[in-house]
Specification:
mainly alpha; AhpD-like; 2 domains
């Protein structure tokens, strides 16, 4: 999962931040790479777990990003929706419906 996305494909706000603070951008990449290398999960599974964490944290931008990255890693839209469904008993129905909307919105944009 250490595959890096070209900065040109990153969202504009992220590009601007990394251009302004390159050391923080590098540290962020290294943190992600270290987590990815920490165990046996394949890239697709890692992306589904990270999506679940973003949903649980109710971070809309991270959910959108997580959907794009999970799809790119080979996850299906049905798998993404199951991740949302699994969150329901932990985060409640209103937050789950919001996450469902974010996931479907991003998946439909492909």
């Amino acid at each position: 999962m250490a595959r890096k996305k070209p900065l040109a494909k990153a969202p504009p706000a992220y590009r601007a931040f990394v251009n302004r603070f390159p050391g923080l951008g590098k540290a962020w990449e290294q943190l992600g790479e270290a987590g990815a290398a920490a165990g046996p999960l394949d890239a697709r599974t890692q992306r589904l777990v990270k999506l679940a964490i973003a949903i649980g944290a109710r971070q809309e931008g991270a959910v959108h990003s997580g959907v794009r990255k999970a799809l790119a890693a080979g996850a299906s839209p049905e798998e993404l929706e199951q991740v949302v469904a699994l969150a329901a008993s932990l985060i409640g129905l209103p937050a789950t419906v919001a996450a469902f909307c974010w996931v479907r919105e991003e998946a439909a944009g492909r």
